[in-house]
């Protein structure tokens, strides 16, 4: 009976991970990584907002934003821009203009190159400004107005 081939070495690291590490180290190539400065961002209806992700890869990745499985391209509603930050790193921004209820939800920042695919999800949620003391302010104009933000 033949002995099964092990995928681990004597120190317990999978051979596949060691080979990938050596390839990346020796070639200077990096599979894409996506990070988010914010995983959730809130904004009120009718306003503009900007979502950002940071992408690191080499060779350069193909990158984009998507919502509900649909790729987002620049239009009168959306503006997609990329800014170089450092070697092999860029910031991908998505400006959403004049928010409507359908703009709220989960957005994915996606990056892919010949070494793999990476993505991270960001949630855009609604905020509603309630002025709790409007009636009281009409009666007593010297009383400060209190504003409370509620998540929709």
Layout of helices and strands:
Blueprint: H1 15-27, E1 30-35, E2 40-44, E3 49-58, E4 62-67, E5 70-72, E6 78-86, E7 89-96, E8 105-113, E9 116-131, H2 134-139, E10 147-151
Parallel strand pairs: 2-9
Antiparallel strand pairs: 1-3, 3-7, 4-5, 4-8, 6-7, 8-9, 9-10
Give a brief rundown of this model.
This protein is mainly β and about 150 residues long. It has a domain at about 30-125: Immunoglobulins (Immunoglobulin-like, Sandwich), CATH 2.60.40.10. It has two helices and ten strands, in the order αβββββββββαβ.
How would you characterize this protein structure?
By secondary structure, this protein is mainly beta. It has a domain at 30-124: Immunoglobulin-like (Sandwich). The protein has two helices and ten strands, in the order H-E-E-E-E-E-E-E-E-E-H-E. The chain has helices at 15-27, 134-139; strands at 30-35, 40-44, 49-58, 62-67, 70-72, 78-86, 89-96, 105-113, 116-131, 147-151. Strands 2, 4, 5, 8, 9 and 10 form a six-stranded mixed sheet that branches. A four-stranded antiparallel sheet has the order 1-3-7-6, with no helix packed on it. The longest helix is centred in the first third of the chain and has 13 residues, at 15-27. The protein is elongated.
Rg estimate, integer Å = 23 Å
Please report the first level of CATH classification, the CATH class of the domain at 30-124.
Mainly Beta
- N/C terminus separation: 64 Å
Would you list the SSEs in sequence order as H and E? HEEEEEEEEEHE
Percent of residues in helices: 10-25%
What is the helix tally?
Answer: 2
User: Average pLDDT value?
Assistant: 81
Shape: elongated
Largest sheet: 6 strands, mixed
Strand element count = 10
CATH topology description of the domain at 30-124? Immunoglobulin-like
Structure classification: mainly beta
CATH architecture heading of the domain at 30-124: Sandwich
Q: pLDDT under 50 segments (min length 5)?
A: 3-9, 130-135
Strand content: over 45%
Could you name the CATH homologous superfamily of the domain at 30-124?
Immunoglobulins
């Amino acid at each position: 009976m033949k002995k099964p081939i092990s995928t681990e070495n004597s120190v317990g690291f999978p051979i596949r991970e060691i080979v990938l590490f050596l390839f990346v180290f020796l070639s200077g190539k990096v599979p894409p990584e996506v990070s988010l400065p914010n995983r959730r961002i809130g904004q009120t209806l009718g306003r503009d907002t900007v979502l950002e992700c940071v992408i690191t890869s080499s060779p350069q990745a193909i990158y984009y934003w998507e919502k509900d499985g649909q790729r987002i391209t620049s239009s009168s509603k959306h503006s997609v821009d990329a800014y170089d930050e450092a070697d092999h790193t860029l910031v991908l921004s998505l400006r959403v203009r004049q928010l409507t209820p359908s703009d709220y939800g989960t957005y994915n920042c996606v990056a892919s190159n010949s070494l793999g695919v990476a993505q991270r999800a960001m949630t855009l949620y609604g905020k509603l400004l309630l002025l709790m003391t409007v009636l009281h302010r009409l009666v007593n104009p010297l009383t400060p107005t209190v504003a409370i933000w509620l998540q929709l």
